[in-house]
Design goal:
Strand content: 15-25%
Structural class: alpha/beta
Radius of gyration: 17 Å
Number of strands: 9
CATH class: Alpha Beta
Helix content: 25-40%
Length: about 250
């Protein structure tokens, strides 16, 4: 196995006491590191918490390039299967992870589904033409070390690739459009959390997903949070909203 970028980037599991489980799914180019703070909070409330590492993530860009949407869905399904013996299983994901959660919830018995800053309409239009762009720009890279206002205590959980192979946008698009089709078929109670300050996803994405997921969907808006919301300043609002949704499901 390729060496992890950091030990925090690996999958983790915390055993709970209330008979319910939460499966946390990270996003495109991400890893489970950002879930470690919220995972502890949820576990302290009695939930078994599992955060699988999607295939090809948390190691190298080359590893990611060798995987695709089917591999990522299979990784999340394996995480679900690992806790399917619990009475209730809640799915929660950030960005692409929220869309993968919708895809699974369409076919599996889940207690609730939570999406956080999941993309439907994105700020960079180039994301929609990944297959064409890959011919001229094989790799997309960025230099930013993470959210500019990230608190010092959260910085250890910001672990990410410096970029990715442009061709992988084809898989991201397949998941985006697949989740839009699947959302109307999800019967589990849903929670959509969207930040108005998200630098990657346009806020209208939250409205679209909430409408597709149905009348029982709860919506929470964040005002100061960037895309990687679980380690940003309003993370306590996310945890509180998730616990409220879980308890009312």
């Amino acid at each position: 196995m390729t060496e992890l970028m950091h030990p925090y980037a690996d999958a983790f599991r915390h055993e709970g006491t209330n008979g319910e489980a939460v499966v946390l799914c990270h996003g495109f180019t991400g890893n489970p590191a950002q879930f470690r703070p919220v995972g502890k909070v949820l576990n302290d409330e009695g939930y078994t918490v599992i955060a699988p590492r999607l295939a090809g993530h948390g190691t190298t860009q080359e590893d990611m390039a060798r995987t695709d949407a089917r591999d990522w869905i299979a990784s999340l399904r394996a995480g679900y299967d690992a806790v399917s013996d619990h009475g209730w299983v809640h799915l929660a994901g950030i960005s692409m992870g929220g869309l993968l959660s919708i895809l699974l919830a369409r076919h599996l018995p889940v207690a609730s589904v939570t999406t956080v800053n999941s993309p439907v309409v994105v700020r960079s239009l180039g994301i929609y033409v990944g297959s064409l762009a890959a011919r001229w720009v094989p790799t997309i890279e960025w230099d930013e070390p993470g959210p500019p206002d990230l608190e010092d205590e959260m910085r250890p959980y910001w672990i990410s690739y410096p970029g990715f192979r442009t061709e992988k946008l084809v898989d991201l698009n397949a998941i985006m459009f697949g989740a839009l089709r699947a959302a109307r078929s999800v019967t589990a109670p849903a929670l959509v959390i969207q930040s108005k300050a998200d630098e990657a996803v346009r806020p209208v994405s939250g409205r679209i997903l909430a409408k597709l997921l149905g009348d029982d969907t709860q919506v929470v808006w964040l005002s100061r949070t960037m895309h990687n919301a679980f380690i940003d300043r309003e993370r306590h609002l996310i945890t509180s909203a998730m616990l409220t949704r879980f308890r009312s499901a």
